[in-house]
Amino acid sequence: MSESFTHCVLPYDGVDDFLGGALPFLRDGAEAGDRVMAVCGVAREMLLREALGPAAGDVEFVESATWYSHPARTLADCLSDADATAWRGRRLRILGEPVVWASRPPLEVLEWQRVEAMLNIAFRGTGAAIMCPYSSSLPAGVVAAGRRTHPETVRGARSMANPLYMDPWAYSARCDGEPLPPPPEDADELELGLPDLYWLRAYVTDYARRTPLPEEDLQRLLVAVTEVLTNAHRHGAPPITLRMWTEAPGADPALVCEVADRGRWASGSAYGLVPPRPSGTGSGGRFGLWAVRLLCTIVQIRTGPGGTTVRLRLRLPAVPALLNGERVNGG
């Protein structure tokens, strides 16, 4: 694969601006024999098909709501596709608009923005090409973040270096710049001595089953909290404390599981932000914490002089009300 990886933002104000950048990107890929994908909704697909004409047959159209289902999982799947396509001697070329995830809850939006930054590291050596159209109608914070997470900006068929682009690790650290809000006073709390995984799992299971968390997600939580607790015992410092509670902010209720210890992590590379790669492909990464990100809806990590906190969030199905692990109002 001779091409280098490219990741560009296409800022646009209307349909003409959008097509002026998207069409050359897609047509160039089709002419070069790339695997070309357009991640979009039905209306945008119809617009692109009509504008592309016969060349639309060379483009795979993917429903954006399905594609943007989970930040870490989408990154992992896309990277796997890029590697597999490169192995076959072709280039993966993706047009993906952030309109679906830009309207989701703030913590999820933040993780999608982090993914936009970290894929600049994860995709090195794949030869893939990714274009992200950002409409001026998106929230201002989303548009501003797009200029910091893409090395290039596209206007029509021209691309130029983006002067606002930030180093991905620096951008990720910025995502974690705010301290975590304190746990609620009525959170369940358990101080852990020697690791006893049987009783830990029993405790987590008992609490989680007082919420509407699906059984499949409970199994994911048990694997994730086991990994985080094991990491705290190996690399942290006592006391190690496990806390659990539920949150119901608007339409995004969540079960939260937190592991805190007095140790301090040495660098951001331990955060599990980059998918592990096959030997020799470059970007590296720790599988344990990366797996935790795959298993949970959101993973928040803070480390400093006061210790390290890992907060796992799993989305809960909407119910009339949730309060500290119990259904209320007749639930």
UniProtKB/TrEMBL annotation:
The keyword S-adenosyl-L-methionine does not apply. Residues 200-313 form the Histidine kinase/HSP90-like ATPase domain. GO terms for molecular function: kinase activity. The keyword Transit peptide does not apply. InterPro entries: Anti-sigma-factor_SerPK, HATPase_C_sf, HATPase_dom, MEDS_domain, RsbA-like_anti_sig. Residues 6-151 form the MEDS domain. Keywords: Kinase, Serine/threonine-protein kinase, Transferase. This is Sensor histidine kinase.
